[in-house]
């Protein structure tokens, strides 16, 4: 590949989608969905040529980052597989408090880009929202349309309940989500339209012949 071709490669620039916010991250638009009965499957449990039962589920990414890095690094490789399912969350790239903020910002931006890419392919996508310290509020709620359905994970939050609730309430203020799909048991103090999804049930993958 020539230098000028590389500089203009869409997978290098990642500038093909509408952006929003201070950091010009790709915008993930709100989408409607019947949330009366939802089931989830971890990205690490997805497969090509999925069976009909599992295709009715949505894909979550509350797993280790290395298990879904391919969604950003090689998006064309994963679109065929992920698009089989009823909907997908955006990847939950980590925003740990011991990361420098440029890394946390990068994680959020990568997640938003995947969401915009999948929506551009006609998929139903709900943004995963995560945060760390109050300084991360400068970017972690950006590029999500107001009143969207969003997803959050509760893994590890029990050890920092006060900090988690501060970020959660800031999310409510900035995004005002129509529904919050909560992966794990929510705190009683969490306001809004919270829809809990059991962690263990998402790992009960039905496979043909099992």
Distinctive features:
four-stranded parallel β-sheet, globular, 9 strands, 7 helices, alpha/beta, 210 residues, three-stranded parallel β-sheet, single chain
Provide an overview of this structure.
By secondary structure, the protein is an alpha/beta fold. It has one domain. It has seven helices and nine strands, in the order ααβββαβααβαββαββ. The protein has a four-stranded parallel beta sheet with strand order 3-4-5-6. The chain is globular and about 55 Å long. The protein starts with a helix and ends in a 13-residue tail after the last strand. The model has no long low-confidence stretch (mean pLDDT 93).
Strand line-up of the largest beta sheet: 3-4-5-6
The percent range for strand residues is 5-15%
Q: Give unreliable regions as ranges.
A: none
- Major pleated sheet: 4 strands, parallel
Name the shape in a single word.
globular
Structural class: alpha/beta
- Tell me how many strands there are: 9
Q: Percentage of helical residues?
A: 25-40%
What is the oligomeric state here? Answer: single chain
> How far apart, in Å, are the first and last alpha carbons?
47 Å
How many structural units, i.e. domains? 1
List the secondary-structure elements in sequence, H or E.
Answer: HHEEEHEHHEHEEHEE
Average pLDDT metric: 93
Gyration radius, rounded: 17 Å
User: How many alpha or pi helices?
Assistant: 7
